Amino acid sequence: MRLYVLILGTVLAACSGPSLSMRGAIRHEVQVGHSRFVVHQLGDRAEAVRTSFETPAQQQGVMHRGHAAIEQATGCRIIAGSFDGDPALMRADLICPPGDIPVWAAKIRNILWITVPAIPDTVFRA
Questions:
Q1: Cβ(66)–Cβ(48) below 8 Å
Q2: Considering the entire predicted model, what is its pTM?
Q3: How many domains are contained in the chain?
Q4: 53 and 78, same structural domain?
């Protein structure tokens, strides 16, 4: 019995993790309408994993909510034609506004600025 609980716990814990190609991605949690998503962003790619339970009636429009979740979480636009997936996992290519850098890169830049003040934002763009 304990083995079943352990296996079930492991499977459920892995549900909202990123795919192997998104290892090291920035993780965002977003709610759009009644749907909750975990969005993973790595450079100009993103994937959204729906973490909320939805009945078949509620699943209508979940792809639109996933699209909105990716744009809301990343602050970037999705490239037309690159959005694909299913109601559980959606992927997209992104176009981010020039001059914007990820939060983690800004933090590194700010730490390095203490010793090296001439680091431009372009160094940290993915």
A1: yes
A2: 0.66
A3: 2
A4: yes
